[in-house]
Protein 1
Amino acid sequence: MFPPLPMNAQLDLSSSGLTAANLQQVVEQIFETRRITRVVQRALMATVLSKTLLSYEEKALVDRVFEALRRGFLRVVD
């Protein structure tokens, strides 16, 4: 398993070259804890809104997180 992402971790998906596997790990951690930090939320949003092309799998992962947020399954923490 991967080490937990610190609650104050900076995550810049658009410039970090985060791979689909790493994104998968971040998403898994989000759903395991049912929490997402505002920093990670903003990074995911910036990735979707950036001109960087996401693969189908990456977009599906990000969409899964935002759908869970919309439905209230995840808690946003500072």
Note: The first strand starts at residue 35 and ends at 37.
Protein 2
Amino acid sequence: MKEIKYPEMLKKKAVEAIKELIETGKEEKIYNVLLAMRMREIRYRLRKTEQEVAKMLGMKKYAWHNIESARVNIYAIHIYKFCKVFNVDVSEMFYSNYFELQKLVDPDKFNELVNYIRKKGVKI
């Protein structure tokens, strides 16, 4: 079976996306981005494609892609179904500290991002 790894490119994009949300005054959307990142990371860890996840959740591939890309709001029902289908504890979906965030962003930019978030006074 081909190993599916969480792409470094996505980690770099995450840093820029979070900074852009802070700069544009849309801090509340950071949580949507972080949830989407977590879902994608879990999908990669479980070696599932977007198509497989969509089918397992009873939705179209584009609908799942939009959720995982944080293009649409992620609702409790999405989290519930995802966790139920993949036997993931709901608590695993939420970040409790910066260490959790570190797994999903570019390691070279992590400290810069944390300092930026703190400087802007944003709580995550």
Note: The radius of gyration is 14 Å.
